[in-house]
Amino acid sequence: MRYSRTQRGFRSGPLAWLILFLSVSLFTAACSSDKKPPPPPPVPVLAATVTEKTVPVELKVIGNVEAYSTVSIKSRLSGQLVQVNFKEGQDVKQGDLLFVIDPRPYEAALRQVEANLARDKALATKAQADAGRYAELIRKQFVSQQDYDQAKATAESLGATVNADQVAVQNAKLNLSYCYIKAPISGRTGSLIANQGNMIKDNADTAMVVINQIQPIYVSFAIPEQDLAAVRKFMAIETIKVEAVIAGQENTPEAGVLSFIDNTVDKTTGTILCKATFTNESKRLWPGLFVNVVVQLSTQPHAILVSSRAVQTSQEGQIVFVVRPDLTVEIRSVEVGRTIGGDVIITKGLKPGERVVTDGQLRLVPGAKVEIKTGL
């Protein structure tokens, strides 16, 4: 058979080349589909090792610092304030002279009662001598019984007067001593309310100054009622240590001991008031300051610890990504206990020595390859 020119051109023209090209492309694509895609690169993560330690069993609450004792200084008599022997905010010691009330009126009163005592003592001495003479005379019947009884009564009356004068002298000396107001405790003075030259009333409504004892010092705090039994149990066995952590000074807590548990649970809050005593040698604890309180009850041996950043929350509960020896990860469910600093206690799901991912979990799936970095 012969073909026309047109038919031969159709066989060898551009359409034939196009068909050939498409055939080769389909064949190449079919061959390339048999090759597997390259594996994804490892996911960079941070990891930490699960550890086993003995950890403290402790309670953490908010506490408030209180003065060990507080004394409001008031005058016990009236008069003009003539001396102030300290500056407000100054530390004072027990027995230091703080104020002096004008003592002159009380010195005069003391001299007067002392004079009365001297006079009445002289009269009492004479009356005793007269009563003695009358006793001798009545035996000889030189005086009447009435005269003797009168002399004896006069002597006894003047003796009682002397006793009353002695009490008056003691009272006057006591009033004079009240002119010199001394510090009843060692502590730190507050704002000075009464200044030199003021007229002072006895037992006025406003204190002249307030002294707070800050060495030692209290930290008061409340614990939940469900922890009361444990606290009392350990307190009966040994002294319970307490730490007070000042905000911004977490690395240098103050150490003290639990010294007081209230006798009533607060019905409105379900808590019970406790106090810890601190020596406060550095005077870092100040009345009114809020602190974080850590009550150390006992220790828990063989606790499994892991960084709290490793624990994630899923629909099934709390999980961690465990790094296998071949650097692939698996998801494992865990049960979490107490928090210890930046770590948590794992009660179930992990063993000491295993490695868990602490950062980079969002890019992970089970079986994913990881690359452990020192920082992301």
Structure description:
- With 376 residues, the chain is an alpha+beta fold.
- It has 4 domains: 45-52 and 302-372, conserved putative lor/sdh protein from methanococcus maripaludis s2 fold; 58-68 and 214-301, Efflux pump adaptor protein, beta barrel domain (Elongation Factor Tu (Ef-tu), domain 3), CATH 2.40.30; 76-101 and 181-206, RNA polymerase II/Efflux pump adaptor protein, barrel-sandwich hybrid domain (OB fold (Dihydrolipoamide Acetyltransferase, E2P)); 103-178, Helix hairpin bin (Helix Hairpins, Orthogonal Bundle).
- Helix content is 28%, strand content 39%.
- The chain contains 5 helices and 20 strands.
- The strands form 3 sheets. Strands 1, 14, 15, 16, 19 and 20 form a 6-stranded mixed beta sheet that branches.
- A hairpin with a 2-residue loop joins β17 and β18 (343-348).
- α3 runs antiparallel to α4 (145-178).
- The longest helix is centred in the N-terminal third of the chain and has 36 residues, at 104-139.
- The two termini are 78 Å apart.
Q: Features of this protein?
A:
OB fold (Dihydrolipoamide Acetyltransferase, E2P); 4 domains; Elongation Factor Tu (Ef-tu), domain 3; six-stranded mixed beta sheet; elongated; disordered N terminus; alpha+beta; 5 helices; six-stranded antiparallel beta barrel; single chain; conserved putative lor/sdh protein from methanococcus maripaludis s2 fold
